[in-house]
Design brief:
Elements lengths: L3 H10 L4 H30 L15 H12 L3 H9 L5 E6 L2 E6 L2 H10 L4 E2 L1 H4 L18 H10 L6 H4 L2 H13 L9 E2 H18 L13 H18 L10 H33 L11 H8 L3 H31 L2 H12 L8 H6 L1 H13 L5 E6 L3 E7 L5 E5 L4 E5 H4 L3 H4 L33 H18 L2 E4 L7 E3 L3 E3 L4 E5 L1
Parallel strand pairs: 2-8
Antiparallel strand pairs: 1-2, 3-5, 4-12, 5-8, 6-7, 9-12, 10-11
Length: 513
């Protein structure tokens, strides 16, 4: 079938009148829509697989859906927009988004399919790398590639998996000590905990990634780079979603932030390369050298000799990683400040541990502490939507047929979007109180595909254990010191989308010893 781009090219070359071109395009689109749907239905019928579709005012490119999503992101009601999208609809359905079929689902069997059982049929590269939406910020990396490129990127983050790293309380303790010392000394003083938590995590993670801490808790001006990183994340999300219209917008605000992040990272990369070369020289001369650095950048630089690729790989770890854990802890405190009974139970569990410092193992055994963290993941997940592009024709286990119980056909090029923020509030899974904060609901629950905040399958988050250790230790220390935590913000949670949602008004609280 002739493509629209080729049709327009021919019409332009032969000076066909504009009205005629418009008519031809309209007929072509209708023809494509009709025959595509007819053929797909025939194929689906042969396979015993049905499709499910939602009515849209623009059936060709789905611009009505695009416009409403842009509006939701711009006006900070994206999570509500997602909930309304799924409201009164089957648990799996399809929409047209920029002319691409997007399958929206909240069924755990389908999540398992794209992340595990049919893993090789679904990927990220068509959306994130091939579209050039992330360029010039990054190209190859753990969150933009598939296949061999992804396997290599996964290898480069191997230090996240070292037990001596993720299980080390000694690594986290000095930074939590400094954080606690910077909290208001007097009881009942209102403050926003979110910026301080952001600086705490920047100091902690910069030591792990670069081998030296930024010490931004003592020097707040050093944390200015975080604002550039947040701009990169927000702009990157928009560029990847609306890559077909990059030419239509002014991206200077985003590019400015990208170059600031690059300048920051380049300093560390070049000094690390220089240190590696100096070490090689000393060894070749038979001279004694000290132990190698153990930070992530050293490991990456030792395996990636080309600066631009190393910067891409590093940026796709450092920039998203810096936002997620700090926002997660801020969200934990946001919920706890509104539920004094939960804070009381957490303190009781902490008090039962005595005066000894917790270990990685003891933190994992704390039922209520882990319930608080899991309930925060459930109600305010960092990973709001899990999207994959179909690399091959495939199927989803459920969503097809008149009752949505049959397998569903997926064509190469389709997008599958698992809306976790809706799945995690599904009353069929969580009961009639699904919108309420109850850490107890996680007692005795084992990891299932209904609730995997760090994902599952080969692409599950490599930092899972590290995040849980860092957040768990921080909450333990705060509950150990403060008898009460109060919310000083009556506004509902208003999500500003970065890599995930962050409350628009921060985490305004008051603490009492």
């Amino acid at each position: 079938m002739i493509s629209l781009d080729h049709l327009i090219e021919l019409a332009t070359a032969h000076k066909v009148p504009v009205t005629a071109v418009a008519s031809i395009i309209l007929i072509t689109l209708i023809n494509r829509l009709f025959f595509s749907n007819h053929l797909n239905s025939e194929e689906a019928a042969k396979k015993g697989v049905s499709t499910s579709r939602v009515f849209q005012w623009d059936p060709f490119y789905g611009l009505d859906m695009v416009y409403s999503q842009v509006k939701a992101l711009k006006n900070d009601y994206y999570l509500d927009w997602l909930r309304r999208l799924h409201q009164n609809r089957p648990k799996t359905f399809s929409i047209n988004f920029f002319g691409i079929r997007q399958i929206c689902t909240i069924e755990s069997e389908n999540l398992k399919a794209i992340q595990a059982t049919n893993f090789k049929d679904f990927g990220l590269e068509p959306m994130r790398r091939k579209t050039k939406g992330a360029m010039p910020f990054a190209d190859k990396g753990i969150s933009t590639t598939d296949g061999k490129n992804w396997e290599f990127a996964r290898f480069l983050v191997k230090p996240f998996f070292y037990r001596e790293v993720y299980a080390s309380i000694d690594r986290v303790r000095p930074y939590v000590d400094r954080f606690m010392a910077l909290l208001p000394e007097e009881d009942g003083v209102e403050f926003d905990a979110q910026p301080l938590i952001q600086r705490w995590f920047l100091d902690l993670t910069s030591e792990f990634i670069f081998g030296e801490s930024m010490n931004s808790m003592d020097h707040p001006d050093r944390a200015d780079i975080t604002w550039s990183m947040l701009t990169v994340l927000r702009g990157g999300r928009l560029r990847i979603q609306f890559y077909r219209f990059l030419w239509a917008f002014n991206w200077n605000w985003w590019l400015e932030a990208v170059y600031k992040v690059h300048d920051f990272v380049n300093v560390h990369i070049r000094s690390t390369y220089a240190e590696i070369e100096e070490r090689k020289r000393l060894i070749s001369e038979g001279k004694e050298v000290g132990p190698e650095r153990t930070d992530l950048l050293w490991f990456m630089a030792s395996n990636v000799p080309e600066e631009e690729e190393l910067r891409s790989q590093l940026c796709l770890v450092f920039v998203p990683n810096n936002d997620t854990t700090s926002i997660f802890i801020s969200n934990c405190l946001w919920h706890l400040a509104r539920h004094p009974e939960a804070w009381k139970k957490l303190r009781e569990e902490v008090a039962a541990c005595g005066t000894e410092q917790p270990t990685f193992e003891s933190l994992r055994r704390m039922t209520y502490l882990n319930g608080v963290m899991n309930e925060t993941h459930r109600l305010t997940p960092n990973n709001v939507v899990q999207v994959r592009a179909a690399l091959n024709d495939s199927t989803l286990p459920v969503g097809g047929g008149p009752h949505g119980k049959l397998p569903m056909q997926v064509r190469k090029g389709d997008l599958v979007s698992v809306t976790k923020t809706v799945m995690y509030r599904d009353p069929d899974i969580w009961g009639p109180d699904a919108d309420e904060f109850h850490p107890e609901r996680h007692d005795g629950l084992r990891g299932t595909w209904d609730f995997l905040p760090f994902g599952g399958g080969p692409r599950r988050c490599p930092a899972q254990m590290m995040v849980q250790t860092e957040a768990g230790y921080m909450l333990f220390r705060m509950a150990q010191k403060f008898s009460r935590i109060e919310s000083r913000d009556s506004a509902p949670y208003t999500p500003v989308m970065r890599i995930g949602p962050s409350n628009k008004t921060g985490t305004k609280i008051a603490l009492y010893k």
